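Researcher: Here's the sequence for the chain we discussed earlier.
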Amino acid sequence: MMLTGQILLKSIQGTLSHGSMRTSHHTATSGSPESGSTGMFGGTDDSPEIIGPEGDTQSFTFDEAGEFEYYCTLHPSMVGTVIVTEG
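Model: Thanks. This is the structure I predict for it:
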């Protein structure tokens, strides 16, 4: 699971998929550990979408350009940014 660094989507309507390739569960929740979930993708702090180690995935299609932070609610040191450009 890539949860460090930046991911660049070169067009609006680009779809980002996360999968867990480790033996533990993760989330890819919009927002940051400091401010909490924005609710845009990945559930919320209270009800995150869990990505299991059994090959589970989570996908989200962005409909606007911008920079979107995300983090793992289970492992708050795992953070990243999705950068969506106009194309």
